[in-house]
Each structure stands twice: as structure tokens, then as C-alpha cells.
């Protein structure tokens, strides 16, 4: 038997997966765990079984749609999603992962925009979601062919598609934290390059166990937990996102029981574990085999890193296990991170930061703590003045621009956005680069991300970062600590922009108490940031919109506020509901 193919040698994903089906035939490719608290309920597929199911789906698809067709994948967490995704690639078609349509109108409309933008030819789902998918498709995608896995097709009729590294594999729709979702065009080469870089930096191989609870349709779930271990010939171990949100300790049990070496999550997940996991739930827990706790997808807070490490140290969690990182769908996923060391932080002068300037804090001046996202790997990174396009030296804050083999080809069906986002050239002619939209600086070779350009609060010439205001409010007011907030600005006539605070509050409270809380929140904003909150809107739990990965949708909240569409339990000042 020949030697296994390396990721760098693979001409496309399908050829690599066929190789794994031969060389790792009987080893488990993916395990789906229904209840990590017990040994019961786990289902799995070997690499050979996964390959056979994927080729059956490819045959079924090829009989119903031409090469290059877009296939919308609407699956709950489970093995069928994985077979459908690879089935698309084995048919030479383009997978479009998305969440199963829910009851909320904005979720259904977002899915409709995805289907329309992709010109969906086929919708694949499984029996458990078939009724919901057919009802949605009848209204929003009536011309699409509906398929339910597993499909009945002759696997021997499969023929390999003529794919290469430039062929489009996936349309990864952005989570939409600042705008309507765009379909990021991910090629076979993007997937393979990103996985190869991850393997090299983190030391992954066929013995690695990688997984967690992130939805498969999210880039951190798909390109982080699922595809790389399949490419390595390793094992991906997954559980339902819903199970984690209801019982966060199950994630930690999954890591222990299945010996995961790598598991990733957004910052809020680590914070949720600190708040809700009890000692009784993790009695006997052993996290000593967890080598990389990848923390990304949203701003990483130093306080959460410290709290999680302290809380779970007694269970074998080590400081060097926690790895803050930076990644984005437009770069396939992984951009920066440094494994094998405790997180690095940097205390900076808060007033200088407001003017997008970097200066270490001195004396008792107001400060902010930035968390390093590690070093940039396999990409050329530039910090650029977004107005002049002049590349800035280390130690200056500007927009992060990236170039490399993992950077995607553009946005599907949007040439203008692709040219603006992926075709940027610096003032001295270097390029093309991806404009990330993130403000950042490089200091001692480390990447520090300070915020999103579109979300920076500009008030009377000052620049504030919304996550700083939101974190301060939760730290100062106990009734807010278990909720989510969204801070943004709105037009204020001759005064320019005015600050508005929206925040969830749990429990039932009298009107007088809520009024007092809103007033105290105003005082905190004025005292800590020196600005006046023109409005404070208190909402029920779930009232602050978030993406599927937990990112706060501040610009959507702003639109809802201006449209008077927020369902508030209390409105103070110029708040609208």
C-alpha cells in the first residue's frame, strides 16, 4: 500500500478524503455524542463509511442538478450534515451550510436571503427537520429540489468530479454581526491550505481528537472542529449546540470522556462555564488531556481567561492550554494564535486608545487591557490607515489587512463588495489584500484586535469601543451580569451622535427598580467613559440579537431601536420601543 497522501499533496478535498477512506478505513472519522454525561447515545462513522455515504449522496445529487450547483444544507447537529457536505464536494457541487429554519421571522428571512443569493438548486435535510424545511422551502425556495438523507443511490455509479484547488467548495455565509450575510467563496485550496497551516502550527496529526459544540454551519465549527480532523485522518467528536447552552458542563464532560486534545469556542462560552457550572456537575472531571482551548470568534476578555483558568485549575486545566486567537470566514478560519503558553495581555492608556493610538499605561491613568491573539501564521499581515491606505509600522493602530493562500476568492454574486473587500492595495502599491474591517495593532510580533471599524462609537470627537462599555456595565451592576448588552450610537442632530445602551435584565422587577437601575447605568457610563447615555433600554433575556456564534449584532440592534421594534421592559430617556 502506498503512503498516505499529505494535505499539501492533495489536488482537491475529494481526492484527499478518498485517500483517508483507504488508509484510515476502520478508524472513527466522526463521533456524534448525544449525552456526554454517559457512555450512551454516541453514534459514529469510520472514514470508509463516511466515504461511502458521501458518494451515495453525490450520485443522488448528480442525477438532479448540474456541476457547480449550490446545495443548501439545513441539518440539525448530527452525522447526516457531514455526509451531505462531503456528498456535495464529491458531486462537484457547492455546499451552502445554514441553520434549520426556526419560527422567528428574521431567521426565516435571513435564510431566504442566503437561498436567493446562492441561487439554490437543491435543499438537503434529514427526517427530523423535513417538515420545517419543506414548509420554509414552499414559501421561500419553491423551485429547489428537496432531498432527505440518507438517500437511496448506487454508490458504484459514482464518478469523481473534475475538481482542483481552484474549484469552489463552500459558500460560507458570514454571521452578519455588522451587515446582511455575504457568501464567502471558499475553494478546495482554501480549505486545504488552512488545515495544513493549522496542522503545522498546532502539531495536529491522525492521533488528534478535535471537537466541541459549535454549530456545523458556523466557520469555527465547520473549518475548526469538523474538516481538519477529517483531512488529517483523525477523529472529530461533536455534540449539539443546544445541549451546551442548556447544560454548559456537558462540553467539559465531552472533552474529558472522549479525550479531546483541541476544542474551540467563543469567549462567551468560557464565561458561561464560569457562571453556571457547579462543582457537583464536574465531580471527578479531568481536563489534563485538553491541550488547546481555542478562544476566538468574538473579542476575548482578559477577565474571562483568568476566571476560567482559576475555576478549572483543580480539574487539570493549565494556563498554557488557553489560546486566544483571531480568525474569520473571509480567511477560511484561522489567522493567528500561539499555542503552548499562557495568554499574553497588554495594558494600554485608555485615552490614547480612544484616539486609535497605542501607548502603554503609566501611573494611575485610566487603562484598558488588550488580549494578544498571538502571531500571524501563513498570511502576510499589514496594519493600514483605512483612510489613506498607508501601511503603518508596528505599534500603531489601523485596519488589519491580510493576504495568503487561505484568503477566500471573494463574495458570491457581489463583484463590488469583492473588489472592495478582497482587492485592497496599499498606497505604495502592495496587494491585493483582504480588508478585515478590524482595528488592530502589532506589538512585539503579537496581534491585538481593538474593535470593528463599523462598530466604533464616535461621540464628540472621541472613539469608544462598545465591548468596553458593555463589559463595564456588567461588572458594575449585578442584575446585568447574566445578560447581554449592545451599545451603539444614533443621530442626534447638531450634537452629532448620541449613545444608546440596550441590555437584557433577568427576573421580574418593579418599574421603580428598573428606573433606578437605568439611572445607575447612566451614572456608570458618565463616570467611567465621560459621555452621556441619551437612552437606556432594558430588555427581556434574548432581547439582544446575536449571531449563531454568539457575536452581538450591534448594527441590527441599532436598526431595531431606530425602527421602534425593540420589546422593552423599561425605557429611560430617549429610548424607543
Automatic annotation (TrEMBL):
Signal peptide: none annotated. Residues 20-412 form the AMP-dependent synthetase/ligase domain. Pfam families: AMP-binding. One of its GO terms (cellular component) is plasma membrane. InterPro entries: AMP-bd_C_sf, AMP-dep_synth/lig_dom, ANL_N_sf, FAAL/FAAC. One of its GO terms (biological process) is fatty acid biosynthetic process. It comes from the Bacteria. Keywords: Fatty acid metabolism, Ligase, Lipid metabolism. The keyword Lipid metabolism applies. GO terms for molecular function: adenylyltransferase activity; ligase activity. PANTHER family: DISCO-INTERACTING PROTEIN 2 (PTHR22754:SF32), DISCO-INTERACTING PROTEIN 2 DIP2 -RELATED (PTHR22754). Belongs to the ATP-dependent AMP-binding enzyme family. This is Acyl-CoA synthetase (AMP-forming)/AMP-acid ligase II. The lineage of its organism: Bacteria, Bacillati, Actinomycetota, Actinomycetes, Pseudonocardiales.
Amino acid at each position: 500500500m502506498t503512503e498516505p497522501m499529505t494535505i499539501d499533496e492533495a489536488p482537491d478535498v475529494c481526492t484527499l478524503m478518498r485517500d483517508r477512506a483507504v488508509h484510515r478505513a476502520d478508524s472513527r472519522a466522526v463521533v456524534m455524542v448525544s449525552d456526554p454525561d454517559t457512555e450512551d447515545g454516541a453514534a459514529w462513522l469510520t472514514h470508509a463509511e463516511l466515504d461511502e455515504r458521501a458518494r451515495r449522496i453525490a450520485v443522488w445529487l448528480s442525477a438532479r442538478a448540474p456541476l457547480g450547483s449550490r446545495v443548501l444544507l439545513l441539518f440539525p447537529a448530527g452525522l447526516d450534515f457531514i455526509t451531505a457536505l462531503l456528498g456535495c464536494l464529491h458531486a462537484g457541487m457547492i455546499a451552502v451550510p445554514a441553520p434549520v429554519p426556526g419560527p422567528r421571522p428574521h431567521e426565516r428571512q435571513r435564510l431566504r436571503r442566503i437561498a436567493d443569493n446562492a441561487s439554490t438548486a437543491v435543499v438537503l435535510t434529514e427526517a427530523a427537520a423535513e417538515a420545517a424545511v419543506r414548509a420554509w422551502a414552499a414559501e421561500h425556495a419553491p423551485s429547489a429540489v428537496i432531498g432527505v438523507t440518507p438517500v437511496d443511490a448506487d454508490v458504484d455509479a459514482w464518478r469523481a468530479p473534475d475538481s482542483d484547488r481552484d474549484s469552489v467548495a463552500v459558500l460560507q455565509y458570514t454571521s452578519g454581526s455588522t451587515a446582511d450575510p455575504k457568501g464567502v467563496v471558499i475553494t478546495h485550496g482554501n480549505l486545504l491550505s488552512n488545515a495544513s497551516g493549522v496542522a503545522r502550527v498546532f502539531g495536529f496529526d491522525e492521533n488528534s481528537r478535535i471537537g466541541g459544540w459549535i454549530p456545523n454551519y458556523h466557520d469555527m465549527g465547520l473549518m475548526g472542529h469538523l474538516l481538519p480532523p477529517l483531512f488529517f485522518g483523525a477523529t472529530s467528536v461533536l455534540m449539539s449546540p443546544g445541549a451546551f447552552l442548556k447544560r454548559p458542563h456537558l462540553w467539559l464532560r465531552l472533552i474529558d470522556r472522549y479525550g479531546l486534545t483541541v476544542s474551540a469556542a467563543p469567549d462567551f462560552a468560557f464565561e458561561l462555564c464560569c457562571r453556571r457550572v457547579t462543582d457537583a456537575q464536574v465531580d471527578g472531571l479531568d481536563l489534563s488531556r485538553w491541550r488547546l482551548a481555542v478562544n476566538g470568534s468574538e473579542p476575548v476578555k482578559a477577565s474571562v481567561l483568568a476566571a476560567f483558568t482559576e475555576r478549572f485549575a483543580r480539574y487539570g486545566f493549565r494556563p498554557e492550554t488557553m489560546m486566544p486567537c483571531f480568525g474569520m470566514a473571509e480567511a477560511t478560519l484561522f489567522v493567528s494564535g500561539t499555542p503552548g503558553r499562557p495568554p499574553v495581555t497588554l495594558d494600554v492608556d485608555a485615552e490614547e486608545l480612544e484616539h486609535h493610538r497605542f501607548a502603554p499605561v503609566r501611573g494611575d491613568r485610566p487603562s484598558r487591557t488588550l488580549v494578544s491573539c498571538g502571531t500571524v501564521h501563513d498570511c502576510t499581515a499589514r496594519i493600514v490607515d483605512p483612510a489613506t491606505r498607508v501601511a503603518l509600522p508596528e505599534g500603531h493602530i489601523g485596519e488589519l489587512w491580510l493576504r495568503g493562500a487561505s484568503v477566500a476568492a471573494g463574495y458570491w454574486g457581489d463583484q463590488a463588495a469583492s473588489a472592495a473587500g478582497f482587492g485592497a492595495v496599499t498606497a505604495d502599491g502592495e496587494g491585493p489584500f483582504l480588508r478585515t474591517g478590524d482595528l488592530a495593532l502589532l506589538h512585539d510580533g503579537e496581534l491585538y484586535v481593538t474593535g470593528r471599524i463599523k462598530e466604533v462609537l464616535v461621540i464628540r470627537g472621541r472613539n469608544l469601543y462598545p465591548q468596553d462599555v458593555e463589559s463595564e456595565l456588567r461588572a458594575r451592576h449585578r442584575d446585568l451580569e447574566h445578560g447581554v448588552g449592545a451599545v451603539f450610537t444614533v443621530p442626534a442632530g447638531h450634537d452629532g451622535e448620541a449613545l444608546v445602551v440596550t441590555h437584557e435584565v433577568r427576573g421580574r422587577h418593579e418599574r421603580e427598580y428598573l428606573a433606578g437601575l437605568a439611572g445607575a447605568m447612566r451614572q456608570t457610563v458618565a463616570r467611567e467613559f465621560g459621555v452621556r447615555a441619551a437612552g437606556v433600554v432594558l430588555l427581556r433575556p434574548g432581547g439582544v440579537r446575536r449571531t449563531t456564534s454568539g457575536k452581538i449584532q450591534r448594527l441590527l440592534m441599532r436598526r431595531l431601536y431606530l425602527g421602534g421594534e425593540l420589546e422593552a421592559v423599561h425605557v429611560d430617556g430617549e429610548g424607543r420601543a
